[in-house]
Amino acid sequence: MPRPMPEIAFGVLAHQDPEMTRRLAAALAGHPVVLHVDATTDITPFRDIPGVRLVEDRVDVRWGGFSEVEAVLRVYRDCLEELGDAPGSSIALLSGADFPVRPLEEFFAYAESVPWSEHVRAIPVLDGTPYMENKVRRRHFYDAAPVGGSGFSAKRRGATRRGLSTLLPRVKPSAFEPLVPVWGSTWTMLSRDCLLDILPQAHDPKVQALFRRTQTPLEMYFATLVHSHPTWSTRTEFGVEPRDGKWPSEFPNFSYIHPTLGVWLDGSYAEEIVESGGYFARKIRSSDLDEVLAAVEQVRAVSPGPSAPRAQQA
To answer: 106-163 pLDDT, tens per residue?
Structure first.
């Protein structure tokens, strides 16, 4: 009798397009799904999505700010409650604009077959380049002076962020010791056991203070805690990888993500999606979803693509 697949809970971060989130939840049906909806978003159309647990103590998430970390901490809390004591279980993070582009059973089989348990690729932050080091050595104020909007107030917030980041003294690299800051994709899958080990540190006010004024801390926070841990760092795929001149967005885990990060996908990206080997793709609007899925199936009928995400291809 075949061994049952380990349980995977899905934590979803959404702030718009409830129809897309509804379709994602339907695709994940039968597995625990915990949904965080940005506190500034009307939650009403999300409440009747079947099969999801809503995070009730929502966070006002600001792009690039520590509020993103706070939202994920609540998602992890609720996912762990949903999983209970399920052995070998994990939590995968998705955005509300993600969608499976391969059968979900293939994703579960992949997670079961690979020798690593922590799907969190990472590259060094303190690598000697201003682009990377400024993420943690400069002080950033995305929660206090958020990105977005237009007109004078948006320009003033931008000027405030840039001014404070430029004028305030740099943080010394030694301030992070014994942690070694790394950057990785937000969209990870971590085992329940790993999270139970690192979450006490993730809730530590002193550790949070180190990352509260960094740039896009969610892309570093949990990856840093995993890759700085004596046990869980050895259960990642590659360990900390050399950047080798690549953009950070070129280090996804199990999803297709356009390297620019900002592109909304339509059917014209089907070949790239299939060739990536990713199990999910982002970012997709609900109005384009059927087009994307149909185009992916057409491409796969001719060339099925790799059996695993590109980084894992032997």
So the answer is: 999 999 999 999 999 999 999 999 999 999 999 999 988 888 888 888 899 989 899 9
Contact present, 274 and 299 (Cβ < 8 Å): yes
Domain with CATH 3.90.550 in the chain: 8-124+179-312
Instruction: Return the structure tokens found at 289.
Output: 């979803």
CA neighbor of 222 nearest in space, from 38, 55, 9, 76: 76
Query: Closest Cα to residue 255, out of 190, 311, 314, 194?
Result: 311
The type of residue at 265 is L
C-beta separation of 213 from 140 below 8 A:
yes
Coil vs helix vs strand at 95: strand
**pTM more than 0.85:** yes
Distances (CA, A) of 148 to 33, 97, 154: 29, 19, 7
Q: Which fold has domain 8-124+179-312?
A: Spore Coat Polysaccharide Biosynthesis Protein SpsA; Chain A (3.90.550)
Q: At what angle do helices 18-27 and 286-302 cross, to 10 degrees?
A: 40
Side-chain half-sphere CA neighbours of 45 within 13 A: 13
Closest to 241 in 3D by CA, of 250, 254, 229: 250
